[in-house]
Amino acid sequence: MAEMIRLLQNEWMKIFKRNSTIILIAILVGSVFLFAFVSSWGNSQQENVPWKEEVQQQIIMYEQQAGNPEATDKEITYYEEQQVIAEHRLEENIPPLDRGSFGQFLLDSKSNLAFATLFTVIIASGIVASEFIWGTIKLLTIRPVKRGKILWSKYGAVLLFSLTIALIAYVTSIISGWIFFDSGEGVLLTVDNGEVMKQSIWVESLKLYGLSFVNLFIMTSFAFMVGTLSRSNALAIGLSIFLMFTGQQMVFLLQEYTIMKYYLFTHADLTQYLQPRTLVEGITPQFSIVVLTTYLVIFLTISHLSFTKRDIAT
Prior knowledge:
Blueprint: H1 2-17, H2 19-45, H3 51-66, H4 73-92, H5 102-108, H6 113-134, H7 137-141, H8 147-180, E1 189-192, E2 195-198, H9 201-230, H10 233-254, H11 264-267, H12 285-309
Antiparallel strand pairs: 1-2
Helix pairs in contact: 1-8, 2-6, 2-8, 3-4, 5-8, 5-9, 6-8, 6-9, 6-10, 8-9, 8-12, 9-10, 9-12
């Protein structure tokens, strides 16, 4: 155990000794601040509609959606709950969160994890491949440490980095939100066992970040596998980024085919279960967890076999 901790610390220091890592973190922080500024400016340009009028229009829309004969049971339940919340707002005079408020920005800021995912993929793809490119892999393997421990220490360091960069994105969103947005008025409401209750924006934002982190975790593991298997930093980064931007588009194009129920990117975004309709009809959170776990086991198995069984000289 002590040996694994030392290896993990060593890999962690390697990551942060690279100037590129500091640059990536700086770009992430700058991107979050830019997103906050642009969002604030965009909201200031929009015409303010009295919230009661907006809620009344939403009630009409929810009634229409719930009454749609083609709506699924899940969609009907979702729109009925939203209608109950909207009616409760009017009855109790409880406004929703302002679009230009800190609370709404914090909820929307989960999209910043897309930047975090991109940068973590760059680190994950190169943590093994760079050892072969620089020729330092031989120095690692001549030590009296099993190859498997070396590999898992690298994977553990990558996971810690992914958690760190997600935390940086969240904290930076909070700070930039305080700077560019007013506290605003409004309350976040939810339905629990048929009862309308207040929901903390902090709890909701952490839930959104937590669900979005699953995609970051899976993409990090995929990039780690490709980098280990191909020993090519460029290939791992290129393939991972390509799939990041095209994965869900493939789901939309081919969602009618049964095979898409087992496609990785059908399940990577767990926030879809907070919406009335999933990417592919018939999937459940439990099924998504099983599919993602299966892919994860495959990724790590391939990484382990590739690193421990292949000749270092190849």
